[in-house]
Structure formats: C-alpha cells, structure tokens
C-alpha cells in the first residue's frame, strides 16, 4: 500500500510517499534557514512558506517516488499525476501544532483526496515521532523487528512526553511536560548565553568542548516528584538568575561550562523519569523520537540506561527522521489503514493541542 | 549619522553601538516603551547642551533621565515611603519627579532643583542602562512644543537638515505602538500629584503578592472572575509582561484551570495554541507567546483578530511586544495588563491594570 503523507505542523513543509514501514521518497522544504534571523519559528513566515512551497514539495516527492520505482516512462503530465496512479491513500497531520500551519496541510490533503478520489487518514504528529523509530529506507533497511511493548520518550522543541505502547496505535501517556519542552529549554538557554537559533545543537557543541562537565550543579527539576511528568521552566529560571549575577565577561568566559551544566540538568531529568517509567512498567525496550535525539551525548546516555536494564533502545535510523517529517506520518497511516481507520473529509479539523490520549478521528 | 534596525541588527550590536556613541557624547534616537526618545549621557555637560540645542528647549524646562534601581538613590532623594511607591510604579510608563542630588547635568533639572526619573518597562532600555552604568536622558524625540513621534520616518520628516546633522545614531524599531507619553508623577511633596496623564493612572493598579505557583494561579483565577463579572460584552485579553522565568505561563495555567483546561504548556515553539474550554460562557482560550516575534508584520498572520469573539479569553505572554495589535485588541476586547515581577525564588509581585 502506497501512502502520500503531509506534515505542516510547525516550520517544515514535508511530503513523503511511503509503503508500509518504508519511506520511498521524502521531500522537506526546511524553513530553518528562513527563520534563523528570527530566533524561532515565525508563524506568518511558516504559513506563507507552507502555502508557497507545498505544491513544489509534493512535486519533488512524487518525482523521487517515480525514480525509486524505476519508472522512466516519458511524462506527459505532472509527476504528481503519474505518482497518484500508484497511491492508495492520503495521510495528514491534524495536530498538535500551530493552527494556521496545520490548516495548510489539511486543506491540501482534502483537495488531493477529492481530486484523485483517495481515502484520507488523519494522524497525530506525536504518533509520527514514535513511529519514526520503525522507519526503513526504500530498500527496507534497517530491518529491526517490532516487538511490543515499548516505552517511547518524545523530546523536541514543542514536546516532551513519555508513552507506553502495548500494541500498534495504542498509547498510554505516562508523563509529559507541565510547562516548557526539553528542546525549548535548550533553545532558551542558548539564547540567554547570547547564541542563535536553533540552540540545541549549539549547546551540544559547547558542552562537548568541555567534555560535558557539570561544575555549576543546577537543580534537577521534578527529581523528587513521584509522577512521570517533566518540568523545565524552573530550571530555566534558575539559570537566568544565575547568569544575572555574573558579569558579561564571566559568562562569555564560561559559556561552555554553563551550556554543559544546563544540558546535563535537562538530560538527567529525562533519564530519571525514563528510568522511573522502566521500573514502574517493567518495559525495558525504549523508543526515543524528536529533535533532541539528534544529540549524540543524549544517545549515549539512553543506550547506557537501556543496557543497565538489559533492554534495547531504538532511535530514528536516519538523521532527517529526528526532525519534523512526513515519512513518519505515512508509516503511522499504514498501520491505521490496516485497521481500516480512515477519516471522512468533514471529520478532519486542525487540533492544535491534540493529545495522544485522544481518540483518533474517523 | 548611522542607522541600526531592531529587525536586522542583533541586540548586542545595537547596545554596543549605542553605548559607544553615548560615551563619545553622541545624540541617539532610540525606541522606548512610549515614544521615540533622544538619548545622551545625562552626566556629560556638552552632550546635554547638544540635546537642548536640538530640541530648542528653553533652559529651566526639565528633562528626565532613564536610570536603574542601583543608580536611583545616588541621583535623587528617595526615602522609604517613596521607595515603596516607586516599586509599585516602576518599571512602567511613568516619570517620577524627585528632589535631585545634582549628580546629572544641572541643565536637566527644573527651577525647583528637581529631577524626573524613568525606569521603563522595556527590555532594551533596561539592558542599555544596566550596561551604560550612567543615567541617560529620556526626553521624547521631537522639538519643543511639537507632538512626539512613533516612527523614525515621521520624526525625520519634521526635521531640517541642520537638525538631522546633530543626530549621531538612530535605532529604528519601526512604528511604535501608540502608547501615550509617560504619566508624570510629582513625589517631591508629601502629597503625590499627577502632573501629566499618559495611558495609565495611579489608582487602578492592583498589587498582589504571590508566594508560590499555586498562589499565582489563584490570583489569576480571581482576576478573571472579577473581570468577567464586570466586563462581559467583549473578549478579555490579558497582556502579560515579565522577565524570563517570572511565571507568565503559570499565570495562564491559572486562567486555564478556571476554564476547565488542565494541559496548558508553553506555546513558545509554535507561538500560539488554542484550547476549547468546558466553561459555560467562554468558548476558547487562546494562549500566545510573542517571545520569538521580532517584526510587527507577523501579527497579521496570527489569526488573533478572528479569535476575538465575545467571551473568548486571550492570554499574550511577552505582551510588551503586542504593540502593533493593541489597537485591534482595545477595540475588540477588554484589556487587562498584568505585570509579574520576580522578588525571590518563590515570591512574585503581580500587578494588574484594567
């Protein structure tokens, strides 16, 4: 089954064509460059770019799909028209995310479904981040078998969640952030230190420059709370007032150590809660998805944690899958299609604060 | 004359260039929380003379200064009672008249030897005064007797070439929100007196002290409850201001809880989240965070206007940046200004003005 998937939840316009767990083609128009000067996502830019780029990205994904399929026939029409001949469904992210950005993807999905008479599948963006760990390339690599149950830790600029998966598409949210997301905390720390956006990779680089030493000992948020929720707002506040007491010279001189201390505090908090979840559920196989997984230091921490519990940890197999992408949306849609979980056009509405615990539409 | 722009130059560049100009005795056009201001080093006699020449200001008409909490006691006489009152008003759109200690140029004082001081609610000016470590003049960028300017182009249209040549640096922040010039409060006498009224008066400010996150939420709930009783003809917009980590999101969580929403998180990453409520009257809560917004253009595309239906509640964090949409907000909503100040780790001061 071939699925064309669309994701426009934040600042990426992403279109993929998938077959089962395989991502055959994936087109992302990364808008990060456009946004660098703004220090974050800027909604109107995001929206304008989505609207301007979406057809372009669809065409690119279709072209790559046809190429991967070895179809070199002469083309009388658009790549999309050609590709649509072998596509069965359209999948689209309907939340969580920025309302006006989601709207662009949803409208496009509905238009395509109508024009080409395809079924629609509505996908939660966070399901996508979970399933990004199961993704394969067009050749079916890597071939890691799926063995439930799993614990999934999702960490990105907008989200921080711990989820128990007992089976496909069955989610129990064990914990989530009550304020800022882990990636957002890292971005803000970078900004406080005078660096640009996105801040996560900058913090990682600074920290590795001092071998991830932790000399400032910032508080470990929520360490003592019995639940599995996260909080990074208090940590950010402590960091802010710690910097306020230092001179600019002192901050610049110690930027690497400061970045490292902050990163350690964020990561340790993630590890403490993940370990608590392992102990509570007895589940030792872990999926980790979202932009923060790009961090190599965190990966090594997670591997050690799984090893201590004789479990296994799975990360998204390719770097582009850590960010927002439609490939992961297509994979979720495949399992939904197998269950016959399709949506009518009228049922799909943008849901900016969609939760994994909510019943799927359709 | 050099021009730097808030949108294309980094804050660091802007601050460094401004500081270097002020040190040289330069005259800088700079955006404030109210109108464009004219900045010179208030302790530099020559620079102040240049400013007076630019403004055609007759001697003896006072000019106020931007200062910091640290500097203030050195510049003017502040007793305990006044100190307390100052903390209620600053940072904010006020100019407070106090008895001068004559540490700034005497040309800035009034004939009664008083000095006007300002600690505005502007991150940029806060950073600048902290860096510069000396008081800086805070007069509006217009010639004496003319009205103040909200954009650099409007100021320049009113100036002769000769006047323009006196300016050394311009920091362009586009069109400023049409806030009135500051409210001028005379505290030199026993009885406090308003000399000029800006956007805010004195009495409507209600001060709450919170000792915990839960208390902050409770205060938020109470404010919403009180306001929705009196004002139920339009949407309610909370413009929330406060430093990083002051507890702005906590305040919104309190509002959310009152409306039956328990999953409010920071919207920084996507700028704006909307929530459906389980409240009888309020249909939607819109939670926006303008932290990453740097250009007024961006507001047009947020969809805020569409969200302003009767009884909906809008919460805007980093509300000091909401200037461009204040016109829309004041037409379609009851605006509540909320200022949250960090007192210590758990303690916050929450001031609200309707």
UniProtKB/TrEMBL annotation, chain A:
Kindly state which reaction or reactions the protein catalyses: L-threonylcarbamoyladenylate + adenosine(37) in tRNA = N(6)-L-threonylcarbamoyladenosine(37) in tRNA + AMP + H(+)
Family annotation (HAMAP family): TsaD
Describe the function of this protein: Required for the formation of a threonylcarbamoyl group on adenosine at position 37 (t(6)A37) in tRNAs that read codons beginning with adenine. Is involved in the transfer of the threonylcarbamoyl moiety of threonylcarbamoyl-AMP (TC-AMP) to the N6 group of A37, together with TsaE and TsaB. TsaD likely plays a direct catalytic role in this reaction.
Residues reported in the UniProt entry to bind Fe cation: 125, 129, 324
**Which keywords does this Swiss-Prot/TrEMBL entry list?**
Acyltransferase, Cytoplasm, Iron, Metal-binding, Transferase, tRNA processing
Residue span(s) of domain Gcp-like? 23-330
One GO cellular-component annotation of the UniProt record comes to: cytoplasm
Q: Which residues bind substrate?
A: 154-158, 187, 200, 204, 295
Cofactor binding mode and count: Binds 1 Fe(2+) ion per subunit.
EC number(s) from the headed UniProt entry: 2.3.1.234
Q: Name one GO molecular function term.
A: iron ion binding
Q: Name one Pfam family in it.
A: TsaD
**What species is this protein from?**
Candidatus Roizmanbacteria bacterium RIFCSPLOWO2_01_FULL_40_42
What protein name does the entry list? Answer: tRNA N6-adenosine threonylcarbamoyltransferase
Primary residence: cytoplasm
The entry's family comment says:
Belongs to the KAE1 / TsaD family.
Gene Ontology biological-process entries: tRNA threonylcarbamoyladenosine modification
Cofactor(s) it depends on: Fe(2+)
Localisation: Cytoplasm
Could you tell me the gene encoding this protein?
A: tsaD
TrEMBL record, chain B:
Q: What family is this protein classified in?
A: Belongs to the SUA5 family.
Protein name in the entry: L-threonylcarbamoyladenylate synthase
Name all YrdC-like domain ranges: 12-200
Statement: the UniProt record of this protein carries the keyword tRNA processing: yes
Q: Where in the cell is it found?
A: Cytoplasm
Question: InterPro entries of this UniProt entry?
Answer: DHBP_synth_RibB-like_a/b_dom, P-loop_NTPase, Sua5-like_dom, T6A_TsaE, TC-AMP_synthase_SUA5
Q: Which reaction does it catalyse?
A: L-threonine + hydrogencarbonate + ATP = L-threonylcarbamoyladenylate + diphosphate + H2O
In the Enzyme Commission scheme, what number(s) does this protein have? 2.7.7.87
Gene Ontology CC:
cytoplasm
NCBIfam families, per this entry? L-threonylcarbamoyladenylate synthase, T6A_YjeE
Q: Which UniProt keywords apply?
A: ATP-binding, Cytoplasm, Nucleotide-binding, Nucleotidyltransferase, Transferase, tRNA processing
Q: Which organism is it from?
A: Candidatus Roizmanbacteria bacterium RIFCSPLOWO2_01_FULL_40_42
Per its UniProt record, what SUPFAM superfamilies does this chain match? P-loop containing nucleoside triphosphate hydrolases, YrdC/RibB
Example GO biological process:
tRNA threonylcarbamoyladenosine modification
Name the Pfam families for this protein: Sua5_yciO_yrdC (PF01300), TsaE (PF02367)
Query: Which Gene Ontology molecular-function terms are recorded?
Result: ATP binding; double-stranded RNA binding; L-threonylcarbamoyladenylate synthase; tRNA binding
Which domain of life, per UniProt?
Bacteria
